[in-house]
Write a structure and sequence with these properties.
single chain; mainly alpha; Fic-like fold; 10 helices; 68% helix; globular
């Protein structure tokens, strides 16, 4: 893990020192593309049936999508709102805390259900061996979670992986825990000058297996490894674009 982390740091610094070679238009295009894919991937993992094309039509072209359940449309629109809210907070230098997480949940649940309130009932995660703690225990574990966000010895990648894995393990809300976990994972990545990542539906089984390994055995390493790989893919995409830009200028 240490060697992989060093590679990511080198690539992150290389990107930082050369990002100016990509035009504002190109960077805006990459950002828009990520936003649409992230929203589609994160909601699709939870069962939303809108295609990537329909998500684009809804978010970028502002064209309504017919014959789709209204809840699914709100899930897409709300996810984009929540992600934009997070990016605004990061620009202001805000650290992730309980107030922010509750507000993200309110945005995600707008026009769907009341958001921002922790569950007061037991819940089960469909298909998972791990069972979330009871509401009383969940509140205790959430307090420890927020303390650990302020005081830990994780590197930036492991920190984002922990933020996601521990929050979704606790499962403090009745709905939306997966979506909010992926958003706050990216909150930590971007806050620490890494690129946001998106977990594809094709990788869902490996993703769930890694989270299950943490939930049952407290082993975060498989999920950290997954985040390392996805982050490197994102960095390589930008670095390859910069390389092409340099070659064109020769």
């Amino acid at each position: 893990m240490t060697d992989k982390y060093k590679v990511l740091i080198e690539k992150k610094n290389l990107l930082k020192n050369n990002i100016h070679l990509l035009s504002k238009e190109i960077l805006e295009n990459y950002t828009t593309d990520f936003n649409i894919n992230f929203t589609h991937d994160s909601t699709a993992i939870e069962g939303n049936t809108l295609t990537l094309k329909e998500t684009k039509l809804l978010l970028e072209d502002k064209i309504s999508v017919g014959s789709k359940d209204l809840r699914e449309v709100y899930e897409i629109v709300n996810h984009e709102k929540a992600w934009n809210y997070v990016k605004t907070l990061i620009k202001k230098g805000k650290n992730l805390d309980e107030t922010i997480i509750k507000e993200i949940h309110r945005i995600l649940m707008e026009n769907i259900m009341e958001g921002g309130e922790y569950r007061d009932i037991d819940v089960r995660i469909t298909g998972a061996k791990h069972s979330p703690p009871s509401p009383i225990i969940a509140k205790i574990e959430l307090n420890e979670f927020f303390k650990k966000l302020k005081n830990n010895d994780f590197n930036e990648i492991a920190y984002s992986a922990y933020t996601h894995a521990e929050f979704v393990r606790i499962h403090p809300f009745t709905d939306g825990n997966g979506r909010i976990s992926r958003i706050i994972m990216n909150y930590q990545l971007v806050k620490n000058d890494f690129l946001p990542i998106s977990i594809k539906t094709k990788d869902k089984n490996n993703y769930y297996d890694a989270l299950e390994e943490y939930g049952i055995n407290n082993n975060l390493n498989p999920f950290i490894k997954m985040i390392y790989e996805l982050e490197e893919e994102q960095l390589d995409f930008y670095l390859n674009a910069i390389k092409l830009r340099k070659n064109k200028d020769l």
